[in-house]
Amino acid sequence: MEVDREDGRSQNQLRPLACSSNILHRAHGSASWSQGDTKVLAAVYGPKAGTKKNENPEKACIEVIWKPKTGQIGKLEKEYEMILKRTLQSICILTVNPNTTTSVIIQVVNDDGALLPSAINAACMALVDAGIPMRHLAVSICCCVARSGLVILDPTKLEEQNMKAFAYLVFPNSVHSVLPEGSLSVQGEPIENGIITSVTHGVMSVDDYFYCLEQGRAASTKLSDFLRRNLQQQSTDSSKAG
Amino acid sequence: MGLPNASGDLSTEVEVDAFRRLFPLRFFEKHLLESIRPDARPLGRARDTTIALGAVASANGSALAKIGSTTMLAAIKMEVMAPSMETPDEGCIAIDFHMPPICSPIVRPGRPAEAAPVVAKQLSDTILSSGMINLKELSLVSGKAAWMAYLDIYCLDADGALFDAALLAAVAAFSHLEIPVVSLNDDGKIVLSEEQGLSEREPVNKEKRKVNLGSIPFSLTCILHKNYILTDPTAEEESIMETSVTVVLDSSSQLVSLYKPGGAVLAYTSAIQDCIALTRQRVKELQKILEEAISGMEVD
């Protein structure tokens, strides 16, 4: 069962990824992430002293500000801020710098589908650039379910609107370890199969969702490799400059 | 105090409340080891749920839903408006969720709750994408007039599982909704016709009718903590163990939404399958409760 996608991609093919970091000079960490035409800019300022009133002072706090490309800030932006905040809180080691606030600002440059996953990827790269201590990275992907039950990855905005349902999935990045294979698995599954965040939109069957999870996991391995190469290259570049 | 494994020495018995405040996680974990929670519920049981229809007499449809202490009041008002150009024969539903200061000590007039716009958007997405209401049913005169339903949900007591209670209240309000009778007057405008025989022309819809509900969505929020899955958390449990998964299933077991916004615990396939199975059971319970509430109203 083949699905004809407008840009000629196959069902599991991602759009061309591009990522660059340390692009903003005043920010402590910054990154720009683009998947095809969707482009997001992320900046990290922190850790700064003090936490907000309702937050726990024994842990570091993460604050997210989402700036849309056009228009006023509404419920959609507030929802994205909350999802991003909780995702980043689960990957950062919050006990290292207690009673501090780290601000993550997301600026949408262009929205052509899979906006929230691009923002999560950009925010992770910016946090790495700022040197915030993290357990692992969050790798995020969007999966769409077509009416025929086929799952396609990384849709454009037109595809997102025409599909029956879509899911934004965030997984931890793949692990390269010197330890033997069985020791890092939880409940018989490797760590990178666990879901950090899942947001679905539209009605799909439970089996469709599990199929999305499988495809998402396979794609997150490819994304993890891309991130690894990118970060390794940056660290060798900066060591040459120094 | 009801601690199932009271260790016997008086000093811990006297300070249970202090222990609960000072070491909340350890307090809960002591209970979880015995597969029970501080309010004596087993891990997989939700709190007592009640629905009262027709709570707001001036609204076209309303309901008060309580899950444990979490209380939500939903009311629907209908207004006639011109439909948009792209969808001339469809009505519109506007959903808003409010958390007034009465519901929780952390909400003050100058400090709105962070959760309010997020739950409002989630509710909006769930109700509109589940296909419960066919918007074409809300049309009056194609291209000229259609119904706009304003659904407002007020949280009166926020004690965890806000989305579950709000969705239940919204669904109950829609099942209680009666579309009022209207007719065209001389100017070609739609007016409410209060009594029979007063209007000059035929009423557009003959009698107050109920909306046909398609597949109704029901939800269940679960908290993941280590290997435990706790269903229907209270506010205290939600603040201590932060990883929550909300599953929304409709009456034909289709997945309307699976919402897990971050959280320190990763959800593996087995945990997701358990959450979905727990939600299926909960859907049956909630369907029964809703049907009893509706049939209770009809007897009157």
From TrEMBL, chain A:
Main location: nucleus
Originating organism: Hibiscus sabdariffa (roselle)
Subcellular location: Nucleus
A Pfam entry, by short name: RNase_PH
Residue stretches making up the Exoribonuclease phosphorolytic domain: 13-133
Stated name of the protein: Exoribonuclease phosphorolytic domain-containing protein
rRNA processing among keywords: yes
Source organism, top-level taxon: Eukaryota
Similarity field: Belongs to the RNase PH family.
Gene3D superfamilies per UniProt: GHMP Kinase, N-terminal domain (3.30.230.70)
InterPro entries cross-referenced by the UniProt entry: ExoRNase_PH_dom1, ExoRNase_PH_dom2_sf, PNPase/RNase_PH_dom_sf, Ribosomal_Su5_D2-typ_SF, RNase_PH
Keyword rRNA processing listed: yes
Keywords: Exosome, Nucleus, rRNA processing
UniProtKB/TrEMBL annotation, chain B:
Chief localisation class: cytoplasm
Annotated ranges, domain Exoribonuclease phosphorolytic: 46-180, 216-278
Keyword rRNA processing: yes
Keywords associated with the record: Cytoplasm, Exosome, Nucleus, RNA-binding, rRNA processing
Cellular localization per UniProt: Cytoplasm; Nucleus, Nucleolus
InterPro entries: ExoRNase_PH_dom1, ExoRNase_PH_dom2, ExoRNase_PH_dom2_sf, Exosome_comp_Rrp42_subfam, PNPase/RNase_PH_dom_sf, Ribosomal_Su5_D2-typ_SF, Rrp43
Pfam families per the UniProt record, alphabetical: RNase_PH, RNase_PH_C
PANTHER family per UniProt: EXOSOME COMPLEX COMPONENT RRP43 (PTHR11097:SF9), EXOSOME COMPLEX EXONUCLEASE RIBOSOMAL RNA PROCESSING PROTEIN (PTHR11097)
Family recorded in the similarity comment: Belongs to the RNase PH family.
Designated name of the protein: Ribosomal RNA-processing protein 43
Origin species: Hibiscus sabdariffa (roselle)
